[in-house]
Amino acid sequence: MLILALAAAVAWSNSNLEIGSAAVQELSPEFTAEALQAASSPLQLVIGDPKDSLGVYITGMRVKLTFNIENHSFIPAFSPVKRYTLFIGNLPVGEVDGTGSAWLGGGSTTPGSVEVLVPPGALRPDVVDVLMDGGTIELNVRAELGWGAATVLRESGLLSATPGGTIRAVLGLPDS
Question: What is the C-alpha to C-alpha distance for residues 30 and 36, in angstroms, rounded to an integer?
């Protein structure tokens, strides 16, 4: 009976875990730029006069988010992190397996982070435009916390972020 009560208390405590204080630490394009060649890439942007164009090949987008996992219960929670999923808007673009676990005392927090290189195939055209010329991108992280029947999914909520440097600015190209 005691074991059943303890399991119920842990499950209830895990249901009170939340993700808070989320922030974007890094959002930057990964790319190469070289003289335009005959071979083309699906994420190649042509800039300038076609006879002496520069080919920009987007190889991904680096994203680093930090956040706190918060225990809003008065009962300690054991929270192994199983997986984090990064979203651009509502589309999942990368997963990171959880690496740790923590006992969270009642009312306490523990820091977490996710760092992902989003592959070029996961970048929608509107995101590519933002990486090239600027604007904002909506990000969200989902954490799978707990174990067994006590596993819960928690999201950070949407975070608006601006790339740390656009491709156009990094290359010193004029505005379009």
Answer: 18
Please say if the pLDDT value at position 30 is more than 80: yes
Angle at 26 between CA 22 and CA 32, to 5 degrees: 150
Please determine, for residue 38, whether its predicted confidence score (pLDDT) is greater than 50: no
pTM of the entire predicted model: 0.75
Gap between the Cα atoms of 102 and 79, Å rounded = 5
Instruction: Let me know the angle formed at the C-alpha of 152 by 147 and 158, rounded to the nearest 5 degrees.
Output: 140
Domain span at residue 68 reads: 2-27+60-171
Domains in the chain, number: 1
Cβ neighbours of 37 (radius 10 Å): 10
Q: Which has the closest alpha carbon to 72: 112, 106, 102?
A: 106
Contacts of residue 99, Cβ cutoff 8 Å, sequence gap at least 6: 81
Judged by DSSP in three states, 94 sits in strand
Assess contact for 139 and 24: CB atoms under 8 A: yes
